Amino acid sequence: MMPSHSIRSQQDHEKLSRQASHKDPLVRKEYWLSLAKEYQWRKFPTQSLEGSFEGGDVRWFSDGHLNITENMLDRHLPLLADHVALHFIPNQEGAERRNITYQELFQSVNRWSKMFQSLDLKANDVVCLYMPHIPELAFAMLACARLGLVHSVVFGGFSAQALRSRIIDAECKLVVTCDGSYRGDKYVDYKNIVDVALTSLSESESESENEIENKILSKVKHVLIHDHTKKPISLVKGRDLLISEELKKIPMDTVVKAVDRKAEDPLFILYTSGSTGKPKGLLHTTGGYMVWAGWTMREVFQLRNDSLFWCTADAGWITGHSYVIYGPLLNGITSVMYEGIPTYPSADRFWKIIEELKVTHFYTAPTAIRGLESLGDEFPKHYAMDSLQVCGSVGEPINLEAWEWLKKWVAKERCPIVDTWWQTETGGIMITNVAGITPEIPTKATLPLPGVQAILLDEKGNQATREGTLCLSHPWPGMARTIYGDHTRYRENYFKAYPGFYFTGDAAECNERGEYRILGRMDDVINVSGHRIGTAEVENVINESHFIVESAVVGAPHDIKGECLWAFAVYQQHEGVSIMKPIQELLIEVNQLLTKQIGAIAKLDRLIMVPQLPKTRSGKIMRRFLRKLSQGEKDLKKLGDVSTLTNPEIIEEISKLI
Ligand code: PRX
Fold first, then answer.
1. What's the CA-to-centroid distance between 173 and ligand 1, angstroms?
2. Per-residue confidence at 286, pLDDT binned at 50, 70, 90?
């Protein structure tokens, strides 16, 4: 029987949109509760939405009880016991692949749960997962969810300092990691990075802040280590535990009772960059996230029981959470987990995997497409990839050239491409075409999904007709409920700019048919290779250089990354004289600082030393002008009104330095 909220035609899309956004709250309630019915609840909710954007507090299905892992594992047994849940492809071609069935996944998650249970953790404790993209990461995420622990996955590309600040912010009680792993031919020394992250700051440096941080870090009683590469590692006595040793104590057929969770109990925290310096730990809760991740996955991609879904994102990002782990397993399909990179050992690795596994759905990022496109058509040309049914794009605007390349060489003019717009905050896809059902328009995300109410607003908060700030006017179940530990920041960040609306931070245009094209970020967030990087976060690090007094970071166009980071900076002065250093040397030094404090993803492509930064009378740096210059604007008259600057003449000077 077809589930009641399936989209099999444009009429279905329209009908569901009408119901989900009906002006009668009872119709809306009925819509959401009947969607929730598709899942297994311990106590079915009687409430759908409570609260509003005005108050900045939203709850969904709040009197419902469930455990999400019962919906991802137990529910599928015994029917899907032998069906592959995770298909793992290691980085090294030729290394052993793993087919993990639902039964085996159930078993592993239960044994991992048992292992966590022995570590003196209590419900809602936060567990930091700093791991490569391997099945053990999925085991750890689901073991947390089974026990009511909150996972906080930190992407392996982040440095020890970035990891440390995330462990401290979430006050983690346990860290799970591995010895190390290869991505391409680059070795990431996970265990060592964790050791550095957990090292107490020395007393000599110690201000009260260090003491507080040390105290929080001391709450990490254990580090669990998976021996992924089997390279020798040193263990910290009393703290470090080898997972292989711990699991030896746990029988294979161990079953751990899933903990009863209320729908609004936290499920996970995921950090993302915002426009101020400190990364935000967005908190997602259990019931609403489950419904949204599960339903969007099924409908947007038009899954079938035999779908073999490959989302190339790392589970360290929201895309991996929702469409490598939660979404596929909620739907009982097979998800591919690939540890490596698109070009290793050669640029046809993706296409080979698609063909060998008979992947049906391929979901990736424009930056990967552009990177592969730049290496030539030769690579995908030799692969028929005739198992593919749907291709998808996510993470940044997809330019026409990349879209057409994907359509021609991968989709082979045969498969629909879905361009899915969403965010860490939204939990799941929000604006997209539905594969093969609603119109596909190159470079446009097109229509909001049923239940998503998008609107464009102008600077004054009035509805804009063609182009404006993309806002959402009604809550949806998958939205993040707060910024962990800082609800005020959550309210200010998302609901203050346009009272009554959720502010996405993106600009968009929309035509008379209600089809959206996302234009990109309009706040101080830069999207580099589909990863969000906050300008303030990067500037704070650059300003630590002895040679730099202040800086402004902007996004400049980049053929492959979409955007890259440029910094405009001012030399430090000593008694009125600038302390200079050759620019290339300084760039290397600054990039080393950024790699150490944030990670290699925050490296600058260009550093431009300028006499002054453009500033308003109140001292605010006007990045807007610098952004336009870095985007190649030569006509200074087109930069906008510079009369609000205290130093308008600096613009011309800077333009000559680019
Ligand atoms: O600017 C939008 C861009 O990525 C931002 C969200 O980034 P993040 O929270 O890291 O999540 C990425 C994966 C969901 C958005 O504010 N973005 C995401 N998808 C698209 C996009 N821009 C244009 N088109 C998209 N399809």
1. 31
2. very high
517 lines ligand 1 (CB under 6 A): no
Task: Provide mean pLDDT across the span 545-549.
Answer: 93
Q: For residue 521, what is the enclosing H or E element?
A: strand 516-521
Q: What is d(CA 71, CA 325) in angstroms, rounded to the nearest whole number?
A: 12
Q: What confidence score (pLDDT) does residue 60 get?
A: 98
Q: Which of 273, 360, 260, 349 lies closest to 317 in space, CA to CA? A: 273
Give residue 539's region: left, alpha or beta (phi > 0; psi -120 to 50): alpha
Both 287 and 396 in one domain: the answer is: yes
Ligand 1, atom 5, lies closest to the CA of 423
pLDDT tens-digit map of 373-431: 999 999 999 999 999 999 999 999 999 999 999 999 999 999 999 999 999 999 999 99
Residues 309 and 443 in one domain: yes
User: What percent of the chain lies above the pLDDT cut of 70?
Assistant: 99
Res 443 pLDDT > 80: yes
Our answer on whether the CB atom of 397 is closer than 6 Å to any ligand 1 atom is yes
Residue owning the nearest CA to atom 25 of ligand 1: 421
Residue of the nearest CA to atom 21 in ligand 1?
A: 396
Residues 566 and 606 in one domain: yes
* Ligand 1 close to Cβ of residue 140 (< 6 A): no
Pocket test for ligand 1, best of 518, 528, 537, 601 (most atoms within 8 A of CB): 518
Q: Name the token pair of 469.
A: 């700030």
Query: Distance from the CA of 292 to the center of ligand 1, in angstroms?
Result: 17
pLDDT at 207: 67
For 218, the domain range is 99-259
Burial class (CB in 10 A: 0-12, 13-18, 19+), 134: buried
Tell me the CA–centroid distance for residue 211 and ligand 1, in Å: 37
Q: Are residues 498 and 349 in the same domain?
A: yes
Answer yes or no: is the C-beta of 563 below 6 A from any ligand 1 atom: no
Do 544 and 515 share a structural domain? no
- Estimate the crossing angle of helix 160-169 against helix 208-217, to 10 degrees: 80
- Compute the distance from residue 506 Cα to the ligand 1 centre, in Å: 9
Cα 533–chain centre separation: 11
Do 396 and 499 have their domain in common? yes
Question: Given 455, 488, 519, which residue is the final one in a domain?
Answer: 519
Q: Please count the structural domains in the chain.
A: 3
Domain termination residue (choose one: 519, 540, 559) = 519
- Residue 574's pLDDT is 78
Peptide bond into 135 cis (omega under 30): no
Domain annotation covers residue 362: yes
Give just the sign of the alpha carbon dihedral 56, 61, 66, 67. negative
**What phi and psi, each to the nearest 5 degrees, are found at residue 6?**
-75, 150
**Could you tell me the pLDDT band of residue 202, with boundaries at 50, 70 and 90?**
low
pLDDT at 284: 98
Question: What is the rounded distance in angstroms from the CA atom of residue 419 to the CA atom of residue 511?
Answer: 17
Are 16 and 130 part of one and the same domain?
A: no
